[in-house]
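Can you give me the bound-state structure? Components:
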Amino acid sequence: MLARRIIPCLDVRDGKVVKGVQFRNHEIIGDIVPLAQRYAEAGADELVFYDITASSDQRVVDKSWVERIAQVIDIPFCVAGGIKTVEDAKIILEMGADKISVNSPALANPELVTQLNERFGQQCVVVGIDSYYDETSKTYQVYQFTGDEKRTQNTGRQTADWVEEVQKRGAGEIVLNCMNQDGVRKGYDIEQLSNIREKCKVPLIASGGAGAMEHFADVFETSDVDGALAASVFHKQIIDIQELKSYLRTKNIEMRP
Amino acid sequence: MSGLVIVHTGCANISSLKFAVERLGYDVTVSEDIDIIKNADKVFVPGVGAAAAAMAQIADKGLTECLQTLTQPVLGICLGMQLLTKRSEEGNADCLGVIDTQVKRMTSEELRLPHMGWNQISKTKEHPLFDGIENGTYFYFVHGFAVETGDHSLAVCDYTQPFSASICNSNYMGVQFHPERSGSAGSQLLRNFIEKV
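Here's the bound-state model for the whole set.
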């Protein structure tokens, strides 16, 4: 059986792993390579490295750390942040990343998703979506430039529409980050993820809100996502990956040892 | 002899394979030079991306015949495995044709595609490539096309339908999963290829 994936996410700024609350007030957690290695050894199924400053500062992700990660870890990893062109993606993939994830640049230029698919194949192309529940309109809306509070803006797109469009353009996986939940550890946005699941025929990864082991069980059982991404619960050692996997196996959720 | 050689197919997962071999303590050369490839002790054919594009790159580099006539052990990985077959539905590509089977698109009404993540294999033959690897071991897969099961299968996996997780015809072997990204089980398989095949 295909196992569900547990995916620690390492937000990277200036070569350090950082974590903020609802995308703000970032604190430094530690160096990238030792943290990556620790997670791989602890049983993480995959890692995501997200350069949170890249899109907002108009920088490309610093390349050297991608290669340093590829040298030491033996599980798949994805690099996100500031990949605006096919050439940017090529450099990251050649350094050993397995996938590249695009977010703001895909919103600015949806054709980028199509081009990445044609050049590297669907399996490399992840689209990250930052989705915010708007109380007034009672809809989920896509935000961009979320790495920088001053530039964060509503794109006017509804999340479900964007999910459909990126699939048509050849995305191989979607990471749905539910901004209202991010960093507050009160559980994944089960309702939104379940709705998007119905529209998402490619692998769907839940992001934002994990605070306890039950939250992972809920999102796998109720929203049927393929993977669950989390940051602070792992960085702060609130949840141990092996304990989490043992717990999920008792719930009959397929887990790699 | 020139030791271990990774064929520079122009695809993207070359670095990760090179690093995985180096983690096992071996030197490995990445090359598109016919003499170096022909004289290697063992040859890796990596690949991600689309079959038609990869075959075109191989032809552009003048490597088609070289790769079809190797006599030392050859390990194709992911798309590299699919290229060892006769034909792929992906872009209707004629492949190297050294293993008598073909590649078909995976289809499913209920399950998500591409097949992405950790899945379990079952061995269908005893082969040194899988020494010390138990049935039910998880490997990391990422693919939307697959090789059907048959006499050529060394191991199978099940997602939407059974398909070949590994194939073999004499000195040519292939794995659909990514051993370089499959944790300790992947390292074991690479070590088996280097030391036991």
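A couple of observations. The two ends of chain B are 17 Å apart (CA to CA). Residues 64 and 128 of chain B are 27 Å apart (CA to CA).
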